Amino acid sequence: MENWIADTRSSYDTVAADYAGLIRGVLAGAPYLRAALALFAGLVRDAGGGPVVDVGCGPGHVTAHLHGLGVDAFGVDLSPGMVEVARRDHPGLRFEVGTMTALDLPDGSVAGLLAFWSLIHLPDAELPGVLGQFRRVLRPGGPLLLGFHVGDGSRLKTEGYGGHPMKVHVHRRRPEQMAALLRAAGFAVEAHLLTDPDGSAPGALLFACPSRSGNPGVH
């Protein structure tokens, strides 16, 4: 696991083009995800609007969807290959290479932050620091939306998206686990939604915002 950042970057560089093709249009068949994104966009507007960062944006399909909802969204991804595809497919939008473990954004600079199934390769030990990064860059009142796989344990993914070789650990987590980590990082948890709870790939959508107290773990 010590090389997880390099392994994740190289894996998604390898699959970027095929991954983009496979998920193109996926939101059209996902009404609950669209509803969550519409709610997120509304929360951004209610908080005064401003730039929104899609952390781990991949090929940019969610960033583009938010843009279509009137949100000033831009994407950041660890994989240069993914960023290249995102820029190709969505030339009017901003995409940058970066890592969520050290977000290259000023304190309090974004009006909202989205991490849509982009925390799934993050080791447990890295989660508090990354959520602290999210707290640092969000403005007061700015919404946070996390999407992630629900369950317990991890598996090593060695192939995917067109049969290409990969080397990434996929971590499943419980909503209550993520909520506790968010509270410890200085967020107030506002809502969560389970998707496909009886299916083979259950997910969770969790809404939060920076705690009014400004102190981690105090609400």
Written description of the protein model:
The structure is a single chain. The protein is an alpha/beta fold and 219 residues long. It has a single domain, classed as Rossmann fold (3-Layer(aba) Sandwich). It has helices spanning 4-23, 31-46, 61-68, 80-89, 127-137, 175-184; strands spanning 51-55, 72-77, 95-97, 112-116, 144-149, 154-160, 164-171, 187-195, 203-210. The strands form two sheets. It has a seven-stranded mixed β-sheet with strand order 3-2-1-4-5-9-8, sandwiched between helices. Strands 6-7 form a two-stranded antiparallel ribbon. α1 (4-23) packs parallel to α4. The termini are far apart.
> Radius of gyration over alpha carbons?
16 Å
Number of strands: 9
Specify the helix fraction band: 25-40%
CATH topology: Rossmann fold
Arrangement of strands in the largest sheet: 3-2-1-4-5-9-8
- Strand-residue proportion: 25-35%
Which of globular, elongated, flat, extended, rod-shaped describes the shape? globular
Give the mean pLDDT: 94
Query: Can you summarize the main beta sheet?
Result: 7 strands, mixed
Oligomer: single chain
CATH superfamily: Vaccinia Virus protein VP39
Please count the helical segments: 6
Going by helix content, strand content and strand pairing, the class is alpha/beta
Keywords:
alpha/beta; 9 strands; 34% helix; 219 residues; two-stranded antiparallel ribbon
Short description:
With 219 residues, this protein is α/β, with parallel strands linked by helices.
How is this fold's topology laid out?
Elements: H1 4-23, H2 31-46, E1 51-55, H3 61-68, E2 72-77, H4 80-89, E3 95-97, E4 112-116, H5 127-137, E5 144-149, E6 154-160, E7 164-171, H6 175-184, E8 187-195, E9 203-210
Parallel strand pairs: 1-2, 1-4, 2-3, 4-5
Antiparallel strand pairs: 5-9, 6-7, 8-9
Helix pairs in contact: 1-4
